Amino acid sequence: MPGALPLGDPAPTDGRLPADLPVDRAVPFSAYLHVPFCRVRCGYCDFNTYTATELRGTSQDQYADTLIREIALARDVLAERDGLRPLDTVFFGGGTPTLLPPGDLARMLRAAVDAFGIRDGAEVTVEANPDTVTDDVVRTLVDAGVNRLSIGMQSAVPHVLAALDRTHRPENVGTAVRAARDGGLDVSVDLIYGAPGESLVDWERSLEAAIALEPDHVSAYALIIEDGTKLARQIRRGEVPAPDDDLQADMYELADARLAAAGFDWYEVSNWAKGPGHGTQSVHASRHNLAYWRGSDWWGFGPGAHSHVAGLRWWNVKHPAAYAQRLDLGESPAAGRERPDPEARTLERVLLLSRLAEGLPIDEIAEAHRERVAELISDGLVDPASALRDKRVRLTLRGRLLADAVVRALTE
After folding, report:
1. Which Gene3D superfamilies match (predicted)?
2. What's this model's pTM, rounded to 2 decimal places?
3. Residue 73: in which H helix or E strand, if any?
4. CB distance 93 to 33 below 8 Å
5. Do β-strands 312-316 and 297-301 pair in parallel, antiparallel, or remain unpaired?
6. For the chain, which residues score pLDDT lower than 50?
7. Residue span of the structural domain in which 205 resides
8. Are 327 and 73 in contact (CB under 8 A)?
């Protein structure tokens, strides 16, 4: 089942922002629209998603109308604080957004654009399972204003997909990419490495298959075992082996080398994009994810979705039925919120910005920890030229493999 929500202060039922919150309309604004439906639950996943048998008291058919009510509430809340501004990015995530009729996704997008406006050239992304992408689906999404499709490939090897409980047919990834290309969409493919039973040869095969699809963007994430998942229980019972850290490191290095040779430039530890432009300036880098990493403002719509405006964070109730019930009553679906103190915000900035190719400005590190940059350079974790010339902490390849250790050194 999905993980627990964080602890925090109670959120007001009207959703209003604190009177002293310094909302700045110059800060970029994004929307995340969560679609919490999946045909099956993957064994490694602890996202806030639900299969048909877990919905209890709600239905997919009503979901778009429910979420549109939250969009209306958000508009009123932001308008009251003069915080309305056009959307820079929109991201439909899940779950599997394309399990909904594409017309529902179009209505949700139209409601967001009507409420906030949208900037010229804004990035609008939909996540998709390969089996759900057809020419008709793509046409509807393109007509609605979607310009980017993120396809959950995960692997090209059947036994690896089986270990992850992924049910899509590997050949349908190519079909989905072709449909997206024919519709004029940018294409990203997502990969996962380190699944039980996956060898370096298996991973190389998946990389080669992904590169052969000629996407604009590739995400490659190491498998993480989350408490409460089916996979965690299987490992605890000794049914499958836990991920091997050394093997995952070898897989990461192989991914970086193969993707670089194919013209992809890393811009975040787990993300690579093609040009024009390099690193975070690549036209194909995920601008929506960059908004998170850089600490911009965003409103997360849907059950369990998280939001951030001017340093205030809040999160919605998790179950779709509870989410719908709140909105049916004219109430905010927010379950709790918090305003992190300066120390927590500094830790978050170090954690996020250090993962980017553009690096972390040294002057954002607490003064007591700046002397450790020299130690990290000596250990081969930080690029010396970037530190000396640009006054930024930029991770080397070895530093990317040990990114958590770099953060600890700069914050503890």
Report:
1. tm_1862 like domain
2. 0.96
3. helix 63-80
4. yes
5. unpaired
6. none
7. 29-297
8. yes
